[in-house]
Amino acid sequence: MKKIIIAIDGYSACGKSTTAKEVAKILGYRYIDSGAMYRAVTMYFLEHHVALTNPHEVDHALSKIKVSFRVNSTGTSETCLNGLVVEDEIREMRISQQVSQVSALPAVRHAMVDQQRRLGKDRGIVMDGRDIGTVVFPDAELKIFLTADILVRAFRRQKELLGRDEMIDIDTIVENLVLRDEMDSTRKESPLRKAPDAHQLDTTFITIDEEVDEVVRLALSRMVRASK
Ligand code: DC
């Protein structure tokens, strides 16, 4: 069957990556977490004290950054920054608090979007993010836009952070999510938007399994259509 591109966009902590990972596994597709790429860039910028207001410093730093993905022994995709696995570090709160500022910079977006398009050139990919269906792959055969209630999202994120031994109170998480939603959807460069042809899915009251089933069902119908 012909391979397609599945773009999964939506607000922070709506279950995009959990769903995307599982769908990719079921279809035998490659999973790319585009948010992880922005997080890795943010980590580099923080560690090298890059001034976001200085375009030369930003360009110089971008020329030194290579973000890649490797599949570990358990079959899970891990983000690497200049060859080092940074999968856990990039999920820390200190990164979440800066990533929206870094990902709003046009130079950062151009560098990452180029790389994302290269990763999807052979199709057979599930990519999650904020602008995948609108900017990165406007021709994706399947576009999903996930939403969920803010408190449900905050509790999901808190559980994820706890699993990494980071205890953050719920109010701080809600504050971070609200702020990021606002910054991600109001920035000038490729803001978070639902593509007109995206299928919207509210995940507040459904389980991950139900979410995955629905995306796989839609994907199969698009694969059949693409193969005709
Ligand atoms: O999906 P995430 O929460 O790990 O993403 C982290 C940040 O990266 C998010 O607040 C906005 C930014 N991002 C983006 O601007 N474009 C994408 N395609 C993916 C993420």
Could you characterize the architecture of this molecule?
Helix content is 50%, strand content 16%. The chain is built from 10 helices and 8 strands. Helix 1 crosses helix 10, helix 2 crosses helix 6 and helix 8 crosses helix 9. The strands form 2 sheets. It has a 5-stranded parallel beta sheet. The termini are close together. Strand 3 and strand 4 form a beta hairpin. It has a single domain, classed as P-loop containing nucleotide triphosphate hydrolases (Rossmann fold), CATH 3.40.50. It is α/β, with parallel strands linked by helices and 228 residues long. It is globular and about 50 Å long. The longest helix is centred in the C-terminal third of the chain and has 20 residues. The site of 2'-deoxycytidine-5'-monophosphate has 14 residues, from helix 2, helix 5 and helix 9.
The amount of beta strand, in percent, is 15-25%
Under CATH, the homologous superfamily reads P-loop containing nucleotide triphosphate hydrolases
Strand order of the largest sheet: 2-6-1-7-8
What's the quaternary structure here? Answer: single chain
Principal-axes shape call: globular
Question: What would CATH call the class?
Answer: Alpha Beta
Number of helices: 10
Sheet/helix structural class: alpha/beta
**CATH hierarchy: architecture:** 3-Layer(aba) Sandwich
Bound molecules: 2'-deoxycytidine-5'-monophosphate
Distance between the termini: 9 Å
Averaged pLDDT, please?
A: 95
Helix content: 40-55%
| Weakly predicted, low-confidence segments | none
Task: State the domain count.
Answer: 1
**Secondary-structure element sequence?**
EHEHHEEEHHHEHEHHEH
